[in-house]
Amino acid sequence: MVDHTPTTAGGYLPKARARLGLIIPAVNSLSEPQFNHFAPPGLSIHVARAQITGKWRRPVAQMSDEIRKTASTLADCSPDIIVFHCTDSSMQEGPDGEQRIIDLIRESTGIAALSTSRLVAEALRTVRIAKLIVISPYQTNDNIIRYLHACGFTVVHDVKLGLQGDEFCTVPAQDWLALACEHDRAEADGIFLSCTNTTQIEAIADIERMLGKSVVNSNQAVLWGCLKRLKSALAPLPAQPELGLLLQHLDG
Q1: CATH number at residue 200
Q2: Contact between residue 208 and residue 192 where contact means Cβ atoms under 8 Å apart
Q3: Can you tell me the distance from the alpha carbon of 103 to that of 26, in angstroms, rounded to the nearest whole number?
C-alpha cells in the first residue's frame, strides 16, 4: 500500500528547525540514509550528487564548475550549511585544496560551507587523537595520510581494502570492527575510519568499547560538526551513544 502520510506542510512531520545540505559523490548510496537515520528531530537533510570520484576524479580546478553547479542546486532549498562531503576528494590537494573547495561553495551560494576533511580534523582534535590508525576501503590512503600530516597528525599505521566504487558499501559493520581490533597499535590514540560510503558508522561504539580508544568516522564527524554549529536551533539534542565519544562534545 502506498503511504499517503502528509508531508511537513500537512502537519504530520516535525517542522525543520535547521537544514543541512550535503554534496556527495554520485556513487554514494549510504550517506543519505545514514544522515536521515541519525539526524535529530528538527534537522532536515538535503542532498545533491556530484560526479567527483571514480572516472570523474580530477583536480579541484577541473571540478570547479561541477562544485558550483551542485552547490547552487542545494542553495535553492536554503540550507543553513553546505558540506562538500567526500573524504578523499576534499583531502586530495591538502588544506589549500580543501579551502578552495569551501571558498567555491561559499562564493557561489552565500551560504556557510564546510568540508568532510575539515570536520574530520576538528573531530580528531576534539577527542585528542594525535597519533592514529587510518582504515579505509580505498586503493590507497596516500591523500588521507598527506592531509593529516599537513594538519599536524601522525599516522602510525594504515589499512586499505583496495575496493572500488559501490564495493565500498558492501563491507558489513562487523568487518570494520574486526579490522580495527586486528590493526590496533599501542602507540595510537585512536582510529580514523575514512570514507562516506560505508557501514563504518555502525561499528564506532563497538570499536570504542573493545579498544578503549576514540573513533572518528567521516559521516559521524560531519554530523557532529554540523550539530555543534546548529545546536541553538535544534536544542535539546538527544544523547547518541551509538555514535561514540565524539558526540559527547557538542559544546564550545
Answers
A1: 3.40.50.1860
A2: no
A3: 21
